Amino acid sequence: MINIHSPHSQETVTLLIESSPLWELALGIAGYTYAKMRYTFEQDEQWTNRKPLMSVTLENNLDKIEQTNLWYGMIMLQNKVSASSIGELSIKVSELPSDVFYETLLPYKNRSCESHRSEAAKSYEQSDAFDQYASLFKEHDYLEGYVRTLGDVSRDELHSLLTDTLSEWYNWQSQNTDWEKWMQALSFEKKQHGRLDNQKPSEEIERITRGAKYVPEPSVWNIKLIPHVSYRPWILEQKTSDTKLIFYPLSDEAFLEPGSPPSELVRGHKALGDDLRLKLLYQLIRGPLSLQELTTQFNVSKTTLHHQLSLLKAAKFVKAEKGIYSANTHQIRSFSNQIHHYLGEDTNEE
């Protein structure tokens, strides 16, 4: 049997960093209304201290969102329309056909349940349809009640509650002297990563989020990495039928003054600023080696080599597994791009 191979271009996920004040507002509301975990958020003390400055409307709206988990709806709608302001969000959401509005709000369960989700969205005037879909989330912490709420509250009420809460939260948060600094840091976070490698999404996600592990999923074709301050120190992950949303906390370095190099950049250059460490890296790029093999090859004590390898590991240039050292080639390439981005150079220029 002869197989005829007709090559096609390989499809990859679309990986991007998305940042806007609206994401930060929605994440702040999500964190504030997560009552049983609120004490773990870095902003909790500040929220508590500034609560007397809240409007009565905001307090009442936050109570409603805490009871219904409608913060989830804010995130789903913003993901759908990618608005840059509350006004734009309100207009774009109002323009959505009702079935699209509800299909956006209804959480994704799995591929086998997509027909149920679609049918519930089309039957938005029948609360029974939402109750049936809600029953699929009985084991979930909050989505069952959230879906039932969508069937009990009118579209106009939902729209008004979500946009009014965002506006009131903005009025309250923007009085915070750190708000503008947050916006600058979020904007810089998006710019500094430049072009992302869609061929290696798991490695890129781990690098950018500083540790989030991502396992490719069959239905996911878009991955949005969304930096935040309000939800620190947590990573929040949500999923639609085709998109993975990963909200990751900004590092302390994001609040550095413009022109100040991030510690990862400084640490990396220090790790490379030694003759022996560069030679070690040169050999490991050509293949994994054990400590014993490196000791024999360089005629240096294990103690000395272990110290030098530890510095390369701290800079993420080297990985170690079961006593075998190997070069982290993705981080090495990424580091080269980081220096270009820090200096403001275009890595695409020859």
TrEMBL record:
Alphabetized CDD domains for the sequence: HTH_ARSR (cd00090)
Family matches, as InterPro entries: ArsR-like_HTH, HTH_ArsR_DNA-bd_dom, WH-like_DNA-bd_sf, WH_DNA-bd_sf
Protein's organism: Fictibacillus norfolkensis
Keyword DNA-binding: yes
Keywords noted in UniProt: DNA-binding
The organism's place on the tree of life at top rank: Bacteria
Protein name: Winged helix-turn-helix transcriptional regulator
Domain named HTH arsR-type: residues: 256-350
SUPFAM superfamilies: Winged helix' DNA-binding domain (SSF46785)
